[in-house]
Specification:
The protein has 7 helices and 5 strands; from the N terminus they run E-E-E-E-H-E-H-H-H-H-H-H. Strands 4-3-2-1-5 form a 5-stranded antiparallel β-sheet.
């Protein structure tokens, strides 16, 4: 309906992930949104916006929302804007501002805390590129926020890594004890368990190293 904040799911670059692409329904078969790849606020057809995907409506059960005509007018007022920034002024920021008056993106708020599952080098380049496009004071604040989010992920992975190392040591002891008792079958089973935990530990160590590398890059390049 006219004035609705709508969204569709699209692929997030070459990450194995999806994101919500938001826009404002004008009620006449057109949508105003930060169009990709032009990165300009444009009014396009519903088909261009949806790309054949299912369109959903963003609902606000609580809080203030403008009436439909004002929402559309706010969107129209920004037509032609070319200030797209993935982290700080994306399609969701735009549509939420039109609807509520607040520039906010929940999916960006949730983006960095799940970066343990993403390619850290690519993610760092996205952060770096976005920070270059914002002002100095805001960039410093956002670097600190990014570092805080990295710590959240680190604090989730490190205890699991330590527990995995403990499991490796435990199964090593079990295997040695089994050998002493001439129980080759138990020794083989214990060593198999040990190998499984070694593989898990290697993956967790890689994630920790990547997070440490990203932290170092952010600290070194905090002026961008």
């Amino acid at each position: 309906m006219r004035g609705d904040q709508i969204y569709v799911y699209r692929n997030l670059w070459d990450f194995d992930s999806m994101y919500e692409h938001h826009g404002i329904d004008c009620g006449d078969g057109t949508v105003i949104h930060y169009r990709k790849p032009s990165e300009i606020v444009e009014k396009t057809s519903w088909v261009t916006f949806s790309r054949g995907n299912q369109v959903s409506v963003k609902h606000y059960s609580q809080g203030f929302c403008f009436v439909s005509d004002i929402v559309v007018a706010r969107a129209e007022n920004r037509l032609g804007e070319a200030k797209y920034n993935f982290l700080f002024n994306n399609c969701e920021h735009f549509a939420t501002w039109c609807k509520t008056g607040i520039s906010h993106s929940k999916q960006i708020q949730d983006f960095i805390p799940v970066m343990g599952k993403l390619n850290k080098t690519k993610l760092y380049e996205v952060i770096k590129r976005s920070l270059k496009q914002t002002d100095h004071n805001n960039a410093e604040r956002l670097v600190q926020q990014a570092l805080g989010d990295i710590k959240v992920v680190w604090d989730q992975i490190q205890p699991e890594y330590k527990q995995t190392i403990a499991e490796i040591e435990s199964w090593e002891k079990v295997a040695k004890e089994a050998v002493k008792r001439d129980r080759d079958d138990l020794a083989r089973a214990a060593l198999e368990k040990k190998r499984d935990y070694q593989q898990k530990a290697w993956k967790l160590e890689q994630e920790l190293n990547e997070l440490a590398d990203m932290t170092e890059k952010l600290l070194i390049n905090d002026k961008f």
